[in-house]
Amino acid sequence: MSKYSYIINSGWWCGEKTPENEKRVEYGSSEIRGVAFFREWYESVNKHTSPAKIIVVDSASPTIPELPDDDRMEFVSTDVNGGHSTSHIGKYAGCTRCFFIGLAYTYASEADYWVYVEQDALLFGKGIVEHAIDNMTSDFMFGDRGNTPQPLQQSMMIIRKAAIPGFINAYARIKATDEVITPEMKFAIASTKVAQWLPERLFYQRDYSTFKNKLINKLQYWLFKYGKGYDVFPFGFGRAKPVNFNDKYGYFQHGDEEELQKYRETVNKDVS
To answer: Looking at residue 54, which CATH number applies to its domain?
Structure first.
């Protein structure tokens, strides 16, 4: 039994590219986008974590996974497919809608933490969530940016329950759509008070080839390096590569064929 009470939240979408989401860039093995991969995701969560509930938010996908016989599992479908953050309907992409639903569920529950694990992310190291919470010094813990272009990574995240209302309010106050300011950037802003006082335009996505925009990008970098209001995980890797499967704890997203094979060898080794 875990010494912490937490809800694990994830999203679900499985389908072919359409004109509405044609801007979506796909990384890693095609296997991670298939319906059968859901079972491996679930086994990864079940083996390495101890959640009170597992909340999967489906973005009106045409393909639904076979759900495990687990009383903790709740599968919720939205009325529309919000779309990818690069091409979505309304103000928010499907991922943001998923975050809001999971955060609200956690706040209405008796759990103390919201833990997000992306649908194509796999974990290794039993007690990984507990280890992360042990190292939290703030209300938020996100993935370190590593060698990615965003200020943080979202394939695994933790937010303390008491901070959820303020966080959602700060996020909702951002007027720009997810296509203009990325969800990763909005998470960084909503968890960093000083960033909330700055003009939104500072955080717009832009072409960083010009000197002015390079300077703005550098300002963003220093702001979230030294002024951020969140912790980063005491382990890798998310989308940052390479993944070291010899580490005690870790997680990875967008796994390619070689990484999936190494992961499976590691998990099977742990079992034997």
So the answer is: 3.90.550
